[in-house]
């Protein structure tokens, strides 16, 4: 399958693994890239630019295919050393960066001067247009279904993707709720040139997370995610658990008076213990509604092969036979 995205990134299949905190290490990125997709190392999971440089070097040992690094621009007072991380990316010879969060405008010159292709992940048509106007090469359009931060507009992909197609000139991939060949074909039908997946890639053999995390995704249905932190305008879709129930109770009780301090125990610094130790009720962790479509833990290669085969079958047989 050849699309503007496979051409842009020099990959075989139009499937991207989005950056994921404490999941997107070299092992997963390399496995996805070796399977013909685009794997992504999560920049900020690495404590320092030097650590990111090591992770990039490790990924290079595991694959000779293209891979990306995710840079998430957080709304924090003490900003991470973004110029340092970008330097590690440039020196590591990485040619694709997935940006997310705030606009990457300030860092575009540094990225573009190094010949890096930038795909910005955003949750609205207006942010996609902004990304296009500042020189991003592509966007990842992240619908309300997505695991992680869906923004505050609550527009599902069935509307958001065709709206993006109406307005954008640069290519875009569908993100949020994508799991299989059906997702890929429908995303293409709505105007996308490929798909970005987060939650689906956590439930794979190579994802370097505790088995409990993978089993929790397989066990979950589409009814099991919750939105938290809406009163802080930092909405996050997470898998329900005891800690998330506590957050939801506090949000109900405090309403607009909720502050970050009220939920700090459930959200701050919990990722390493959840993802690596498998302490599943410790805190809130991002997970998409798509968990309802995830029933197994295949290798990345089997997953991607299956997706492409199913997509081709749908296009050649199911859809063709309806004409
Ligand atoms: C556990 C987890 C952690 C994530 N961490 C990040 C992150 O650090 N930066 C980022 O840009 N996106 C992050 N995401 C979002 C994913 O890259 C992707 O956009 C999203 O998962 C797509 O929705 P899906 O889960 O329905 O496939 C995370 C998602 C998950 C599930």
Brief digest:
This is Nitronate monooxygenase. With 323 residues, the protein is of the alpha/beta class. Helices cover 42% and strands 14% of the residues.
Describe the structure.
- An 8-stranded parallel beta sheet has the order 1-8-7-6-5-4-3-2.
- The two termini are 21 Å apart.
- The chain is 42% helix and 14% strand.
- It is globular.
- α8 links the parallel β7 and β8 (195-197).
- The protein has 14 helices and 10 strands.
- α8 packs across α14 (300-321).
- With 323 residues, it is an alpha/beta fold.
- The model has no long low-confidence stretch (mean pLDDT 97).
- It has 2 domains: 4-208, TIM Barrel (Alpha-Beta Barrel), CATH 3.20.20; 221-286, no CATH class.
- The site of flavin mononucleotide has 29 residues, from β3, β8 and α9.
- Residues 18-21, 23, 42, 70, 72, 100, 121, 142, 145-148, 175-178, 196-200, 285-288, 290 line the site of flavin mononucleotide.
- Pfam families: NMO.
- This is Nitronate monooxygenase.
- Keywords: Flavoprotein, FMN, Monooxygenase, Oxidoreductase.
- One of its GO terms (molecular function) is nitronate monooxygenase activity.
- It comes from Halopseudomonas pachastrellae.
Features:
single chain; 323 residues; alpha/beta; TIM Barrel; eight-stranded parallel beta sheet; two-stranded antiparallel sheet; 14 helices; 10 strands; 42% helix; 14% strand; binds flavin mononucleotide
């Amino acid at each position: 399958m050849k699309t503007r995205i496979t051409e842009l990134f020099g990959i075989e299949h139009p499937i991207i693994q989005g950056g994921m905190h404490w999941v997107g290490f070299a092992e997963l990125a390399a496995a996805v890239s070796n399977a013909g997709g685009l794997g992504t190392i999560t920049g900020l999971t690495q404590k320092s630019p030097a650590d990111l440089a090591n992770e990039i070097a490790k990924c290079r040992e595991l694959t000779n295919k293209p891979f990306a690094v995710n840079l998430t621009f957080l709304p924090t007072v003490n900003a991470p050393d973004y110029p340092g991380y970008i330097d590690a990316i440039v020196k590591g010879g990485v040619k694709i960066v997935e940006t997310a969060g705030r606009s990457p405008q300030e860092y575009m010159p540094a990225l573009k001067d190094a010949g890096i292709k930038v795909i910005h992940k955003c949750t609205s048509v207006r942010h996609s247009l902004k990304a296009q106007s500042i020189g991003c090469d592509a966007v990842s359009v992240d619908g309300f279904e997505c695991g992680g931060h869906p923004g505050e507009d609550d527009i599902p992909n069935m509307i958001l993707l065709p709206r993006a197609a109406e307005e954008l000139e640069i290519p875009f991939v569908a993100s949020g709720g994508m799991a299989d060949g059906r997702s890929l074909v429908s995303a293409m039908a709505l105007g996308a040139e490929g798909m970005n997946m987060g939650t689906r890639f956590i439930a794979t053999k190579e994802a370097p997370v505790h088995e409990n995390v993978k089993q929790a995704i397989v066990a979950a249905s589409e009814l099991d995610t919750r939105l938290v932190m809406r009163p802080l305008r930092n909405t996050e879709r997470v898998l329900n658990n005891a800690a998330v129930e506590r957050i939801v109770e506090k949000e109900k009780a405090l309403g607009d008076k909720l502050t970050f301090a009220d939920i700090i125990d459930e959200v701050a610094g919990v990722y390493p213990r959840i993802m690596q130790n498998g302490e599943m009720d410790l805190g809130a962790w991002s997970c998409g509604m798509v968990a309802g479509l995830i029933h197994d833990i295949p290798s990345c290669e089997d997953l991607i092969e299956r997706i492409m085969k199913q997509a081709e079958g749908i296009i050649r047989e199911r859809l063709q036979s309806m004409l």
